[in-house]
Amino acid sequence: MAIEVKGLSYIYSRGLPYEKEALTSVSIKIFKGEAVGIVGHTGSGKSTLIQHFNGLILPQVGTVKVFGEEIKNDKRFLKELRRKVGLVFQFPESQLFAETVYDDIAFGPRNLKLSEDEVKERVMWAIDEVGLTSEYLERSPFSLSGGEKRRVAIAGVLSMKPEILVL
Q1: Order of strands across the sheet with 3-12?
Q2: Do the Cβ atoms of 84 and 162 come closer than 8 Å?
Q3: Is residue 13 left, alpha or beta, with left meaning phi > 0 and alpha meaning psi from -120 to 50?
Q4: Dist. CA 60–CA 42, nearest whole Å
Q5: 160, 141, 163: which is closest to 152 by C-alpha?
Q6: Which of 4, 101, 130, 154 has the greatest CB tally within 10 Å of its CB?
Q7: What 3-state class would DSSP assign to 50?
Q8: N- to C-terminal Cα separation, the chain
Q9: What 3 state SS string does 91-154 have?
Q10: Comparing C-alpha atoms, which of 69, 75, 30 is closest to residue 49?
């Protein structure tokens, strides 16, 4: 099983007068190779749930397991977890930060301490996977259209070759 969530509850601003319950006793199992859609109204907890999958948010109540390992607040564990679970945010264009498209896509593989040849190979593979040409690589991501920015952000996550991809 890739992801298993049991009895997950989460409250934002817990204990304050304006606390907001985002998740209440959520349980879900996602198996390797499965494509799953999580749908709901604005504010229903979709983003809160998926941010638990790679440890951006840690469980307050309940458990989240990825490949059988329970998510915990341990720096080394979370670093490895984020290599396995690639997360593309709701507005992925806000993830962009580098001066060139190439450097943005290469950021993750470089952090993995891969050789520059392997980094380049992953960048070229990822840009192709999202339907952009190598002509984009030297451009500033901030000069691109909204759709092109989204593709670059997705390519950046794909270049990490995560075992689980959350879009």
Answers
A1: 20-30, 3-12, 61-66, 69-70
A2: yes
A3: left
A4: 22
A5: 141
A6: 101
A7: helix
A8: 19
A9: CHHHHCCCCCHHHHHHHHHHHCCCCHHHHHHHHHHHHHHCCCCHHHCCCCHHHCCHHHHHHHHH
A10: 30
Identity at 40, one-letter amino acid code: G
Predicted TM-score (pTM) of the model is 0.87
How many whole angstroms from its chain centre is CA 36? 15
Per-residue pLDDT of the chain (167 residues; tens, 9 = 90+): 999 999 999 999 999 999 999 999 999 999 999 999 999 999 999 999 999 999 999 999 999 999 999 999 999 999 999 999 999 988 877 888 999 999 999 999 999 999 999 999 999 999 999 999 999 999 999 999 999 999 999 999 999 999 999 98
CATH topology classification for 3-85 = Rossmann fold (3.40.50)
Would you say 13 and 60 are in contact if contact means Cβ atoms under 8 Å apart? no
Domain ranges of the chain: 3-85, 92-166
94: number of Cβ within 10 Å? 10
Name the one residue in this structure whose structure tokens are 């879009």: 167
Q: Which amino acid is at 92?
A: P
